[in-house]
UniProtKB/TrEMBL annotation:
This is Uncharacterized protein YecE (DUF72 family). It comes from the Bacteria. It comes from Amycolatopsis endophytica. PANTHER family: UNCHARACTERIZED PROTEIN YECE (PTHR30348), UPF0759 PROTEIN YECE (PTHR30348:SF9). InterPro entries: DUF72 (IPR002763), UPF0759_sf (IPR036520). It holds the Pfam family DUF72.
């Protein structure tokens, strides 16, 4: 069954308390509350440290079978050693996320220095991953986007490994100078690359960065609603992650994106209604 997954860069944010998540919610229950708003999440924390298997098991218990985790490979694998001599680290990582089962997608995010000459190393690495594991790759070297030969080279490599190419669309964000501290930080850190809308597998993944302004963010994603609607009509099951520099409204924006796509694809099922957030009390 085709399904649109939408989500955010995290399942907990200070600004969400009392709005999207109940105030003073224990850490062990925050993912469950978040999963009432969204049906996917980026696993960015795994980039910095491989979690304990028991911790991941609590993630699995807090989410239903239709929830999707896109978990980032450790930086020691992708950035520090660039796939060389990482067998022990990958065994530990794969064992840790095993409780998520088919809900987990392995997300290989590569640094901007990883260019077309390095594709062979990526191919060898992808071949060693378990065949049953879904995999996706995000590249940031400009050559993959601007040189047709390099684009084709990477597409062939990913297609051979049944891996998706994850675009991080920042084009809307970089149209005008930053107007807040959060936007300035993103301006300095986020990649500036052309928008890419071609899917390689039946489960495309998109990361979209808007602005702190809700209106600008919504206006900027309109090209994506058409693309995602087309993928759904083709029988694909895409995942779209909504980012803004401050992420204050990210859960509601993710749901709004889902609603906009559903208006184009009436057969798409609605997201479940989140539980009401009760206001904090003194007693």
């Amino acid at each position: 069954m085709t399904r649109l997954h939408v989500g955010c860069a995290m399942w907990n944010h200070k600004a969400w308390s009392g709005r999207f998540l109940p105030p003073s919610l224990p850490a062990r229950e925050r993912l469950r509350a978040y999963a009432g708003w969204c049906n996917a999440v980026e696993g960015n924390t795994t980039f910095y440290a491989t979690p304990a298997r028991d911790t991941v098991a609590t993630w699995a218990r807090q989410t239903g079978p239709g929830f999707r985790f896109v978990v980032k490979l450790p930086k020691v694998v992708t950035h520090e050693r660039r796939f060389a001599g990482v067998e022990a680290e990958m065994r530990a990582f794969l064992d840790a996320i095993e409780p998520l089962g088919e809900r987990a997608v392995l997300w290989t995010q590569l640094p901007a220095s990883f260019g077309p000459p390095d594709v062979d190393a990526l191919v060898r690495f992808l071949r060693r991953l378990p065949a049953a594991r879904r995999r996706a790759v995000e590249v940031r070297h400009p050559g993959f986007f601007t040189d047709p030969g390099s684009t084709s080279l990477l597409e062939r490599a990913l297609a051979a490994a049944d891996a998706e190419w994850v675009p991080f669309d920042t084009t809307v964000f970089f149209r005008s100078p930053p107007s807040s501290e959060a936007e300035q930080e993103a301006w300095d850190r986020k990649p500036r690359l052309p928008r890419r809308t071609r899917a390689l597998t039946d489960r495309p993944i998109v990361r979209y960065l808007g602005r702190d302004s809700v209106e600008e963010t919504v206006a900027g994603w309109r090209p994506w609603t058409a693309v995602v609607a087309g993928w759904l009509r083709e029988g694909r099951s895409p995942t779209v992650f909504l980012h803004t520099p401050d992420n204050h409204d990210a859960p509601s924006l993710a749901r709004r994106f889902h609603d906009d796509v559903r208006a184009l694809v009436p057969g798409l099922g609605a997201l479940p209604e989140p539980e009401p957030v009760e206001p904090a009390t003194l007693f």
